[in-house]
Input
Amino acid sequence: MKKKLSLLLALLLLYPCLSAPAEEDEDLLIEEIVENVDLDAVTYGEVEWTFPIPLEDMNPEYIRLANKHYLLADDYVPQDLVKVPSKPKNGGIYWAVQPKGGQLLREECAQALCDMNAAIREAAEENGYRSLYLKSAYRSYQTQRTMYRNRLERNNGKDDGWVSMPGASDHQTGLGCDVVPSNWRDKAMNDKMMKEPECQWMAEHCHEFGFIIRYPADKQELTEINTEPWHLRYVGIPVAAYIMENGLCLEEFTYELQDAIQDFLSRGGNPETVQPYIQEPAD
Output
């Protein structure tokens, strides 16, 4: 009992000190504390991640770059390919061609494409949009090799930028697809398609569904591919929004991300954290 009374007395004696206001020049207001903390900062371990998109918002498979410098292996085949539904009334998208085995895309990409098609169909009555057609989706390394050889033969051995070399095709990722308005489904594609209102709608809205225009008109020096307003590439909504809002192509995004990874590692970041996102050119 005496110990309890002694403790109570000690607390009473300390109370004025505890309750006394601090000197004005030593005050640290809550607002000041909040202002000095970066609430948007993302850290992995104790190292800040400075890239605008957190790692967990990027699927390393979906942002994989495929071009003549970042080649896919000849045995690379996505594991979750599905047949894209071909009936819009049932949530699909028309096919312009009927390849053996059907039009295939990775599952999440296929669903996003069908969602995008449903959205433009909803806007069709008000804006007069024609139906969209899926003209080409996944292509294997072997199929791309045949197409590339055929193109070279028809073009006196010159690579004119219309058909990617095997291993460099976006289609092999299972995330690239050629989507055209109905009046182009039977025609050879060229950059004049950019004027079609359906292609303009895709350029404006595709990022809302996780797609980018893979080969923009102003990025040919970087992509080394001619303008293709019909070629969509699925990268996921956070990445697509960042790319489209900043006027980038996938090559530029990749370079920015790789720089951010090297910066993260140079400051002591855990290599295992970023390993799935590291991409290195073949040459």
Notes: The chain is about 35% helix and 15% strand.
